[in-house]
Each structure stands twice: as C-alpha cells, then as structure tokens.
C-alpha cells in the first residue's frame, strides 16, 4: 500500500509538471511566433521539453562516456527551475492584464511582443540579482550567553556552515571562498550542519573537493552531521571515510567533548524513513552527560526544539530550509517550521537556523542570502552579552 501511494504521488507530480510546463511553453511559443515567424513547432517543442525536464533527465543513470552531457543537463535544468518559478508567478498576472485590456476595449495587437520583452528583461534582472545573492556571502554574527562553565571564562568562537551542496553547481571556487571566510574568523570549533553534498558524491570525488575542505582550521577541530541530501545520495559510508581522511569527524547520533563543551551530532530526520534503526532521541544522546557543561547540538532539519530544550541542550544549530531560497517560498518555510531562519530563544535553548552557504537546484536566491554563521558563546560569569541572541551585524537582503 505504501509503495502504491508513492507511485500515485509520483505520477500526480509528473502530471502537474507536464501541465505547468505546457502552460509556460505555450506562452513562450506565442512569443517565438511573434519574433521568429516560420519556426518549426516540432523543433520548438522538442527543445523546450529537453530544457524543461533537463534536471530530471540528468538524474537518469547515464553510461560513463555520457556523464559530461548529464552534467550539462543538470546545469541547464537547475537554471530552468528558477525560470519556471518566475514564470509561475508572472504569467498568470500577464494573462490577467491581457484579459482586462480586452474587457476595457483596448487594442492588444502589440501586447505579446511588448509583454514578452518586458518579462524577459524582468527575468534577466531576477537571474542576475539572484546570482549575486547566491554567490556573495554574508557572515551573520550571534553573541550567545550560556549560564554554564567549561572551567574558563574565555568565550568560544564557533564557525557554522550548513547546506554547502557541493556538486556540479557549487564547486571548488565557492568552496575556497568559504574556507577563507571561516578561517578568517579564527574559530575554536568549526561545525558543518548537514548537506555538505548535493546528493551524488561523484562530483565531490572527481573534483577532489576534500582538498579544499582539508584547509579548514580550528583550534579544537572540525565536525559535521549528515543532511537529507547525503541520505539521498546513498554514499554515506564513502562520504564519512572521505571526511575522516581529512580530519573531519561526521557525527551520527554521537557526542564528543571538546574544550569542556559537548558537541552533539544527530542523524538527519531522513534516517527515520531510510534506516531501519531510525535515529536516537535527544534525551538518549544526552543521557549520562554532565549538564553543568555547555551542550551544542547539530540537527540538520530545524525540528524538535521543545524536546531539545527539555533534554538540556543549550545551543541547537540547523539549516535545511535555505529560507525558501527563492521568494515567495519563504512564506511556505515559515509555516512549515517553528523557525525557518535566524534566531529563537526557547527556555534556556538558543536556536540558530542558517539559510545555508550553497544552493539546491538553481544558484539563485531571492529574499535569502548565502551565509555563514559566527557564534560567540559567552560562558558563566560573562556580563558582556544579555543572551538574547541579538545579531551584531545586520544585513539587508
């Protein structure tokens, strides 16, 4: 029964995509006919189908000799996803204007050409500004006070990166910038809060991206957790081996103690559906720990805040949402999660959810920025910060 439901859901989703893309393709065809009369309909629809379903075509298991073509399809398909979202928003409004002009008795003779030119200009601005938001990174700083002690009053500087999505879109160039930004913080600890990979581990290995990650430097080490995309890629064992070989420990329902502080790494929530044993509860992970010491937990998906607070976690770090990545998707993530981005105080628990460093699909962001997190954790006895998690650096996006 579960398999049948999955098949029905997949068929319905595919049907919806076909209908949406036919709607978009028909509007583009009107413009092609206006600007390039005589264009073959068969040729147009063949090219449009390949572009509109390029991302799905790239997911097919291609033979090795055709892998470069598959990567091209993925890049083209990624950008088309952004164009598709843009079209879904603006084309119904364009149709409404077209209808109103007819109702009001105005001539619509030049509407297709003028509207097409306007929308293409808007799309260019959308893609250019969205690319700037995706590739130009901001550092969010969060001073946090914890009424616990590590035996020293010195604050901890923790650099956090989530959702890097290393693959065919986000590669070594963006990764080098991340390493430079993080090392510039001179952190005590570096935490990678899931989705380091963008599904497949193949680009990570082919482009030797571990050599860039290896350059991350922190006084007390670099630690990571799994995200949903590591599960989707199906190469968790190889990924954890690769990370271990460069000195990065991937915590899977594990706790380590560094600098008098507990670092807790949960398996991603995806493990509940993709692994027979699921994942351990927060209370089980913290059982037997000395909770007079700070507890900092990475959990890729921002859920279960109340359980974390009750168990004794002091700081919870998550990502996953990308803050919707492209507006108005952030309206959806706001409704899906108690906190989809930013800072929240829940009892003694400080929650920080990052919009992520990389991107999924198109390297485009609207109402969202590529970001890194710099936490300054003030311990017992410090009077410098109030503990309300005020962002010291405000960035307009």
UniProtKB/TrEMBL annotation:
<dbReference type="InterPro" id="IPR029052">
    <property type="entry name" value="Metallo-depent_PP-like"/>
</dbReference>
<dbReference type="InterPro" id="IPR051158">
    <property type="entry name" value="Metallophosphoesterase_sf"/>
</dbReference>
<feature type="transmembrane region" description="Helical">
    <location>
        <begin position="44"/>
        <end position="66"/>
    </location>
</feature>
<keyword id="KW-1133">Transmembrane helix</keyword>
<keyword id="KW-0472">Membrane</keyword>
<feature type="transmembrane region" description="Helical">
    <location>
        <begin position="7"/>
        <end position="24"/>
    </location>
</feature>
<keyword id="KW-0812">Transmembrane</keyword>
<dbReference type="InterPro" id="IPR004843">
    <property type="entry name" value="Calcineurin-like_PHP"/>
</dbReference>
<dbReference type="Pfam" id="PF00149">
    <property type="entry name" value="Metallophos"/>
</dbReference>
<feature type="transmembrane region" description="Helical">
    <location>
        <begin position="107"/>
        <end position="130"/>
    </location>
</feature>
<dbReference type="GO" id="GO:0016787">
    <property type="term" value="F:hydrolase activity"/>
</dbReference>
<feature type="domain" description="Calcineurin-like phosphoesterase">
    <location>
        <begin position="157"/>
        <end position="323"/>
    </location>
</feature>
<protein>
    <submittedName>
        <fullName>Phosphoesterase</fullName>
    </submittedName>
</protein>
<feature type="transmembrane region" description="Helical">
    <location>
        <begin position="78"/>
        <end position="101"/>
    </location>
</feature>
């Amino acid at each position: 029964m579960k398999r049948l439901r999955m098949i029905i859901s997949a068929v319905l989703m595919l049907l919806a995509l076909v209908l949406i893309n036919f709607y978009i393709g028909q509007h583009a065809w009107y413009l092609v006919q206006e600007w390039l009369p005589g264009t073959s309909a068969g040729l147009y629809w063949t090219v449009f189908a390949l572009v509109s379903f390029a991302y799905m075509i790239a997911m097919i298991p291609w033979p090795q000799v055709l892998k470069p073509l598959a990567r091209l399809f993925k890049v083209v398909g990624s950008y088309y996803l952004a164009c598709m979202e843009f079209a879904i928003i603006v084309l119904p409004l364009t149709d409404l204007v077209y209808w109103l002009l007819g109702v009001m008795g105005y001539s619509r003779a030049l509407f297709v050409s003028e509207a097409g030119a306007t929308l293409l200009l808007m799309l260019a601005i959308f893609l250019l500004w969205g690319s700037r938001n995706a590739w130009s990174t901001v550092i969010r700083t969060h001073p946090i006070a914890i009424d616990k002690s590590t035996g020293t009053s010195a604050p901890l500087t923790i650099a956090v990166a989530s959702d890097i999505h290393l693959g065919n879109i986000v590669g070594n160039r963006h990764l080098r910038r991340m390493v430079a930004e993080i090392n510039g913080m001179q952190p005590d600890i570096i935490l990678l809060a899931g989705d380091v990979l963008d599904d497949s581990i193949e680009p990570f290995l082919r482009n030797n991206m571990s050599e860039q990650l290896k350059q991350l430097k922190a006084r007390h080490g670099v630690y990571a957790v799994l995200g949903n995309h590591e599960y989707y890629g199906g190469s968790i064992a190889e990924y954890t081996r690769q990370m271990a070989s460069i000195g990065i420990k991937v915590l899977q329902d594990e706790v380590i103690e560094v600098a008098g502080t507990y670092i807790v790494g949960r398996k991603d929530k995806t493990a509940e559906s993709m692994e027979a044993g699921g994942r351990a509860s927060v209370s089980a992970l913290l059982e037997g720990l000395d909770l007079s010491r700070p507890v900092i937990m990475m959990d890729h998906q921002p859920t279960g805040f109340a359980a974390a607070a009750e168990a004794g976690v002091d700081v919870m770090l998550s990502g996953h949402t990308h803050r919707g990545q492209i507006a108005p998707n952030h309206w959806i993530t706001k409704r899906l999660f108690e906190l989809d981005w930013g800072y929240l105080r829940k009892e003694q628990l400080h929650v920080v959810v990052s919009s992520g460093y990389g991107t999924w699909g198109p390297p485009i962001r609207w109402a969202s920025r590529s970001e890194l997190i710099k936490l300054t954790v003030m311990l017992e006895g410090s009077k410098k910060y109030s503990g309300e998690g005020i962002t010291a650096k405000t960035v307009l996006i």
